[in-house]
Fold Amino acid ABC transporter permease.
Amino acid sequence: MNDKLIQTVSPKYAMAVMLPPKPYVPSQFTLSLKLWHALLLIAICLFFTGFGVAETDGQAASPFTLLVKWMPLLLSGFIFNLVISFLAMALGTVVGMMLGLGQLSLMPAVRPTSWFVTQFFRNAPWLVLLFFAMYLLPFKLDLGFVVVPLPDWFKAIVGLSLPVMANVSEIVRGAVRSLPSGQWEAAESLGYTRQQTMWLVILPQCVKRMLPPWMNLYSILTMATVLASIVGVGEVMTLAGRALAAEGGRPDLLIPFYSFVLLLFYIYCYPIGRWTRYLERKFLVVT
């Protein structure tokens, strides 16, 4: 009976293999941003800038002139946002990978502890974690032989890396769990230990599956770096507020300045989102 069943089953279904991805068929109701959306955003910024010019009495500098004047400062603040996002993502990824592997550990003390830490920081508001790091971390760290100051931007990086750590932990756990169990059984049949199987067989296959959600998480983190302005870190939103205060708090400057900040994040994050969708289609796994 068993021999007959084996003969009737195609070898394609008898082996644990990864099927090729299905061709991507865009949905009729899928909404996606196009290039003309960016052009429309720029047109809106220019419209409100011109509206602000019409409100001036002719003696004050126009909003466009002041925006050009403060543009180098705003760009430097935006670069600082990117630095914060890079460092927070790197720190959160390293710690999150260790935490994710801890969730897969067979040690009874490590597994529940890693799960609790992951769920705690994953379900906490990012702003609360930022305040947590900003006000609970010391202003300086005395090592006995040297005193290391902890500036606000460093605390912001630590605060933003906490939710990143928790989400990366779940990404690692989900990617490892998504692999078929035949990978573990095949490595075991070759005499691999659990550690060798994890580092030489499982994790290399998980990179493709982890990359799209990891990039999506980085895009979200980049947009969340403006939260650091609430705690006084000198990033682009803080500098925009200082520039507006230096110009006397003119209300006609609000829309041009903050529209420019919005445009900077759009230009940076939108290609990341498009690339993420491309990778999702490329590495689509059919089960």
Notes: The mean pLDDT is 83. The beta strands are 140-142, 147-149.
